[in-house]
Amino acid sequence: MPGEQHDKESFQIGAVAVTNAEKNKKTIFNKIGGFAITKTDLKLLEPGETVVTIVRRHPIGIIGIYIEMLTGILLVIGLVVLAVIGFFVSISSQTKGLVAAMGLFVVAFLVVILFVSTYVYRQCRLIVTDKSVVQILQRALFNRRISRLSMSNVEDVNVEQKGVLTSIFNYGTLIIQTAGEVDNFVFPFCPTPDKYANQILEARQNYVRDYSEERAN
Fold this sequence. Notes:
Strand order of the largest sheet: 5-6-7-8
């Protein structure tokens, strides 16, 4: 029946076929990449594209921000305690409460900044398909840049790992070199960069092979 045929219409994402009934889910799991691909990401893909993998930043890139924020929170709490207990013994209880409330506000503000920073950091990603590479750079809460690079413009993929930490935690900068005047795609804090570089190069080789076969036919 026509209604049943419409319900069975599906989209191919990596190795997973997703029916229309599943489109209402918040995320759709991509087994090949090992990450959940959101419906927002699906809108960035061209018709017929197949997701090869999704690259997200290594958690170590956000550790520095966590350390700074947690240090600031502990410092504020310590200052409030010293101010209320040590330095302002003679002040009224109302004033002490005001000082404590101000300290609590500063701590809450720092926690919000920490959550926002984490969100912005985690939103940066590469979506590698069989036809292109889509780079999403979240620069701020309401500032995002999306760039698309066709596999035909991928010249080479390099990996840079400098320092002891990059070797210990196995992360680095993934650089996708492009042809012509197109800017290179630079993705810092890439986990297991060698693995992802090989996957992109393999996708590029498959694209060239399929394109050559189409032209031959």
